[in-house]
Write the structure tokens for this entry.
Amino acid sequence: MQIRAFVHAIKGLISFHIALNVVVVLFITGASYYHTPLEGGKDTFVYLGHLFLLQTTVAGFMYLLTLYKWVFRIAFSALFLFFCSFSFFAYTQDISVTPGLIQAVFETAPDIAIDLITLPFLGFLFVAILVLLFFIKWHNRLSSRKGVALFTLISIGCIALFFITEMKRLNTLKSRLPYNVFNGIEDYYGAPKFRLNTMLPKVTKQTDSLTIIFILGETVRADHLGINGYDRNTTPLLEEQQVISFSKVYTSNTYTASSLPQIVTDKTLDVDKESYTSIYSLANAAGYETTWIGNQTLESSFASIVETNKNVLLVDKYKSEYSFNKELDEVMLPVLDSVLKTSHSQLITLHMMGSHWYYENRYREDFRKYTPVITSKYIPSVTKQEMINSYDNTILYLDYFLNEVIESAKKNETPTAVFYVSDHGESLGENGQFLHAGEAKEQTNPAMLLWFSDSFKDRFEEQTKNISEARNKRLTTNIVYEYLREIATIKRQ
């Protein structure tokens, strides 16, 4: 009888929490899954399970906020509306919550930020406020102290589940609302992990008329380029250009946060120092105009390096690789053309989304040559061949993109070098492994390409000869920094 009476006493409390969690799914956590491509019942089941896991951990924190009426009225209400503000843009524009977005929220001038306050946004918040008021009234009628010991224990278990999940697989939950907001704020305020030299050596360059277009690719492995002997002709346009391809470049850094800082500084794969010199700081000191044009959001691991450029131009900067409506890399091409006209002595960097997962978001439909392609983000539901087909279509798009850059370089008035390197490779099902951030050999062999204009080859014969002769050598990505210095003719005074 006591158990029955207890259950009857907490029945209203249970109904309240179930309803509250459903509302939070609809207004907040569900926004992280709204744009996820799914194919079939298995995909749907898996992602519903992921959402259930996420909401279970959120429910643990939510319960603690309902223990006291004023905490619920003030703290929960403020957090609910705060997260709704982010989820609206996740629902409507597939915007990702990143440190860059947090920076925009915290630092954007009020007169610019007010442009985001549209009638649909206000309508969404108005409905959220009405729902919130309903739950506040409901909460006032409850005796939230009944069963507090049992529910607190369950709540602690739900919260522990968050940390256990993150320990087993980082960013499983932190990359989703509402946790990604806290994660973005933490990264925004976190000190840069990469310490840069502030005292630079005195340097000079041997010419005042030279353009270097440096392209940082993403997730492109060398052995899937037709120009390197791949059995599919994935680089038909580049094979018509006089491109030097380095098929034997290796790296032990198989994710962007570690590979990019190493590539664009004097950090080497095998030796650690207290601080490092950015190639852009060196180029600035030598008199180059440095410009970063990026289609990736800036991560805390390399943001400080990027900011050593004199100009930083980010396209589609509020959508990360998690977005399913991310702009294609070609949006950088008009920006490149405009920057090329600004100086006769410059180092321009293009940071691509490249072949980053989800592959079907990385190229135009007219480049879908190899089929069938992937139709789901849930990897176990797609075949290895579908993965390879979609990936190879991204390489066809890369071929187009690099060809467009080279054609722009041909029109440039100054001697010009185009230098492409991917940050790392990618696993496509070999030994059951997919994507990157591992140690598989397919992930450690990134693509690297170089193209020189005729005027560059005529004027800088030594650099052209030295680099061309190394095309078949086994190299590491340490060479990128050295080649950039050599191409830029940067010498110590």
Summary: The mean pLDDT is 88.
